[in-house]
Amino acid sequence: MNYRAYIFKLFFRILLLVSIILALTYAIYKDKTAYTVIIGIALFYLLINTYTFIKRRFVAMDDFFEAVKYRDFSRWFPEDRGPKDIRFLYTGFNEINRTIKEINSQNQAQYVYLQKILEMVDIGIIAYNLESGDVLWSNDSFGDILDVPSFKNIRFVERRKPELFNTVFETYHREPNSISIALQNESIKILISDTVFQVDEDAFKLIVIQNIDDTLNKNESESWKKLLSVMTHEIMNSIAPISSLADTLQKNLEVAINKPEESHLELEDLNSGIKTIKNRSEGLLKFAKTYRSLSKVTHLNLHRAKVSELLNNIQLLMEPSIKAKNINIQFNVSDPKLELDIDTHLIEQVLINLILNAVDACKSDDNAEIKVLASQNSNRNIVIKVYDNGSGIPQDILENIFVPFFTSKATGSGIGLSLCKQIMLLHKGRILVKSIEGEGSVFSLVF
């Protein structure tokens, strides 16, 4: 709107100038001296007024562009005085200054934020001018890894440690490269990579280094701790039901020996129990060997197994100890002819894990119940489901339960379910979960 007003005022002045010039021409032509002088004065005044009118805007814009040239965005243009069109122009200049100051402030905050992050990481980072050697930016980790004090030019390192300078600064490492460097009385291995980038007319080199020795030692220590935790967890999961079944068989044998007339021990039951212990023990040994190289397994000991026999073995192994905790457990196979090509020992380990988790989830309920059901779905996939009516899994952690070493239990190791998932993936199957907090959960093994 102000732009239109400015155009209108300028157009009006031009029209007035043309009219006065025509009037002056007419007065001169008619030889009217008095009118000529008056009109000439009016023309001179109008020319000065028009010049001032136009110049005022150009001066304002020139001031603004001068401020931009020298990046002086702190200047404030008066919005409350002067002609309306100039005040409008000043308002626009001030708005541009405010916007640029906000952008600069945000950029500065992001720069400080990024700088703090780079200073906190244990990876050494340096950027320097390729021609002059002046350091553009470097974090403390770079000097700590190379065992050199803070410096402003890389020639400092050249004078102090020529060999290190040649390896790190003079040699190009386009791809991450593992090298050994000598520091005082020891040699360390670092991972180094670099890149060259251009800023205006200057070329800079960015170098990133990481102390591999420290990282490997730390990761190795953590891996050993986690491995021991995993093995202990899985072995205890298998030993507990084996011990319970062996204890039951021992008590029955003692009764049969001491009070043969009261004993109803069936040799077939005794044989089945011992066979179950033997099979589970072999499975435990095989599991220990398999887990040790689980990430490298490319071949499973697959064979055709009846699902009913698989669940019968689990029932014989787990049922006594579970019922002792006043938890009702049921096993059911929809079709006795269902068969799977599986590594039986590993799938048994998966089912033991899921059943023990179900026991833990519903052990405090008065009407605790666990169901292990096997059937074939509409896609002709065989599905084994483990139901429980326990506490359920909170929705906020449900998506993390298969993440290795994630656990919501005070004494859990967080590897049971991740291991179950890994075993199912090896079988080219899936493990799914549905849970409602306070109502229970169902885990499905889909083959």
Widest beta sheet: strand line-up: 2-1-5-4-3
What is the CATH class name of the largest domain?
Answer: Alpha Beta
Number of helices: 12
Proportion in helices:
55-70%
- Largest sheet: number of strands, sense, barrel closure: 5 strands, antiparallel
- What's the name of the CATH homologous superfamily of the largest domain? Histidine kinase-like ATPase, C-terminal domain
CATH architecture classification of the largest domain = 2-Layer Sandwich
Which regions are unreliable across 5 or more consecutive residues at pLDDT < 50?
Answer: none
Cα-based radius of gyration, to the nearest Å: 43 Å
Order of helices and strands: HHHEEHHHEEEHHEHEEHEEHHEE
Q: Quick one: how many beta strands?
A: 12
What is the CATH fold-level name of the largest domain? Heat Shock Protein 90
Strand content: 15-25%
Average pLDDT figure: 79
Backbone shape: elongated
Total domains: 3
Distance between the termini: 73 Å
Which structural category fits the helices and strands? alpha+beta
